[in-house]
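Dear U.,

For the methods section draft, I wanted the exact inputs and outputs in one place so we can describe them consistently. I've listed the two proteins in the order they'll appear in the manuscript figures. Please don't edit the C-alpha cell lines directly; just add comments below if something needs changing.

First protein:
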Amino acid sequence: MIEEHLKFIYDQFDYLEDFKNFEELTSGHINDTYLVTSNFGERVILQKINSGVFKDVPGLIANKVGVSKHLLRKLKHFSEEELKRRVLTFIATKNGIFYYQDIDGYFWNMMVYIEGSTTFETVKNEEIAYEAGKIFGEFLNLTSDFDVGKLIEVIPNFHDMAFRFSQFDSALKEASEQRVEQAKTCINLVYELKEEMHVLQKLKDAEKIKLTVTHNDTKISNVLFDVNKKGLCVIDTDTVMPGIIHYDFGDAVRTICNTAAEDEKNLSLVSFNLQYYKAYVKGFIEKTNSSLSLLEIKYLPLGAKTMVFIMALRFLTDFLNDDIYYKTKYLEHNLDRSKNQFKLIESISKQFKEMEDYNLDFFESLK
C-alpha cells in the first residue's frame, strides 16, 4: 500500500526515470523521509513535510528552494556534478512547482540524493568539529547577501527570548507544587541568568546585529561529509528563516561541545569541550570573517551560552507543563535534560573569557 502511494507521488515530479524500490529513512524526528531508487539506479529523497509542526508548508519549501538556488549561483565555479554534492537540489513537479499536495492534504517534495556521503551523530575529534565549522560558516557566508525579506518565518518566535520567558512564566503559574519544588534549583537559575540572556535579543531588536539567513537546526548530523571526512554541504533546511548568526553558531557548539548526551543524569560527566569549540570556531571564522563585524564576532560565545539556556528553559517549561511537548522516557526526563543544560552553562561560564579571547584573536589574525 505504501509503495503504491509513494510510486504515485514520485510520478507527480518531473523526473524521467521510473520508480523501482524504496527504503524509509528514520534518522529525522519530524518529517517522513524515503530514499527512492529508480530503474537506472539513480536515487532521490522523497519527503512528506509534517504540516502539524509547519503551518505554511508551501512557504517553507519556497524558503529552502530559494536558498538552494542562491547557493547554486554563488558556487557556479563548481562543475554541475559537483554542485549536486555541494547544494541540495530540488526537483519540481510536472506542474512546475516544488511540492505536490496529495489527496489527504499532505505536502511532498523531492530532492537529489547525494551519493558517497555520510553523517555523524556525535563529534569524536577536533577534525570533525573544524569541518562542521567550515560548512556551517560557508552556508551563512554565502547566504549573507540573500534578501531575508523573501523568507517566511517557518516557526514564529523560535528563538525569541521574551516569548520563551512568557511560556515559562505561564507554565510556572499553572504547575503543580510538587513539580515546582522538584525544579526549584533550575527555576532559580532561570532568574539569575534572565538579564544576560536578553542581551542578544536587545542587540537584534536595536539592529546592531544584522538579520540574515539562519539554518536553525545546526546539529552535527545536518552536515554531510565525504569519504575523507571533509564537509560537503548543509542538509535539512526546513527551518531556514531570518535570524542572527549567533543562533546557528550557538546551537552548533551546544551539541558539538557537550561531553555527554543532553539527558545524561550524571552531571559530573557534563562539561563544555573547549578544544572542540576552538576547532569549530577556526573553521567557522575562516569562512565568515569577510561578512561578520567585530561586534558579531565578540558576541559569538554569548550565542553559545544563550542557545544552551533556551534549551534548558524549554525543557524546564515542558517539565512544569507535565511533559506535553517533548517525548519523555520517564517522569523526570525533561527536568534531567534541563539540569544537564544548566550544567553546560556553568562549564561555559568558567571558560567564557578564554572563548571570547580566542574568537577575537583568531578573527584579527585573518585581517
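Second protein (the one for the lower panel):
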Amino acid sequence: MEGGFAQETETREDGYHTPVMVAETLAALLPACGKVFVDATFGGGGHSRCLLEASGPDGRVIALDRDPDAIERGARAVRAWSGRLTLLHGAFGRLATALQQAGVVPVDGVLFDLGVSSHQLDTPWRGFSFQTDGPLDMRMDPTAGQPVAELVNRLRAEELADIIFHYGDERYARRVARAIVAARLQAPLTTTSQLAKLLERVIPGRRGQIHPATKTFQALRMAVNDEMAELRSGLAAGISCLKPGGRMAVIAFHSLEDRLVKETFRQGAQPRSVGHGRLPPPVALATPRPTLRLITRKPWLPTPAEVQRNPRARSARMRVVERLPEGVEAV
C-alpha cells in the first residue's frame, strides 16, 4: 500500500511549492479565461497558481484548506492575485456549503490533491514525520479534534491493530498494537521519536526502502483526521457543485483513497439507483440516470522524469470525470 505523501517539494522563488502532475492537471480541467475553479486542497498553493496562470486574465480559483497554517501562508498569494484567488479555511467535506456562501456555484472545475503536504511533513511540531522529533499530533487542523497521542495512549490493542492494519496494511499490526499498549504502561507515548523507535524495535528489518514506521504513521494520521469519511463527503460535495461540462480531477497517493475515487466515479457514470454497487453512492450520484462521464478509465500517472525529479510523486495517480448535462447518457 502506498504512502499518503502529497506532491509538493521544492519552494520556488515566488514562494509557491512545485506541485505534482501539473501538465495532467491542466489537461484534465481545461482552464481558460473567465472560468472558475476550486482547489479543494490548497496546501502550498502550487496548483492554484497554475490554474490562475492558465485562466488569465479573469479566471478565478476558490481554494480551501483545513490547515490554518496553509491559510496564513497563502495570504500573500491572495493579495498578489488581486481578487482572482479566494482562500477559505475548512475541510473539503463541507465544500458545497463554503462555495454557496461565497456565491460561486456552479463551478467549471474541482481539484483534489490528497495526502499530507511537504510543509506539514517538514514541520516537526506538527508531528507528521517519524524522521524528526516532535509532539505526536498529526492533525491537519491543530485547532480541532484529538492528536494521535490520544489514540495511542487510550485505545485498546484490538482497536489500534484494526486501525494500523486497515489504513496502513501493516502485516505486523497486532504486534505493533501490543507493543504500544505495553510501552504506555511504563510512560505515555507523546513524541514521534518515541513511537518511531518502538516501531523500529518491533517490526523486523527494513523492507526495501520503506522505514518500519511508515505504515503505522500513515494509518494513525488517516484515522485521527477521519480522511476516508472526509473524502467521501468531499467527492459528493464537489460533484454537486460542478456545472454541466465541468470537470473534477483527483490526485490520490493511497490505494484506499484511489479505490474510493474510482468506485465513486464509476457509479456516477452508470445508470444506477440507490443501494447498488460495492460502496454506498454519494447523495449527488444517487440518480437512475448517469451523472458523470469518465475521462480517465485508468488513472493517469506522473511521468518517469517527474518521479526522478520529485520522488514523493511516485505513488500519485489522477482520475478525472466530467459532469453530464441532464438527460445526456455517458459514453
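Candidate sentences for the figure legend, describing the second protein: The beta strands are 36-39, 60-65, 85-89, 107-113, 242-252, 292-294, 317-323. Residues 1-15 have pLDDT under 50 and may be disordered.

Thanks,
Y.
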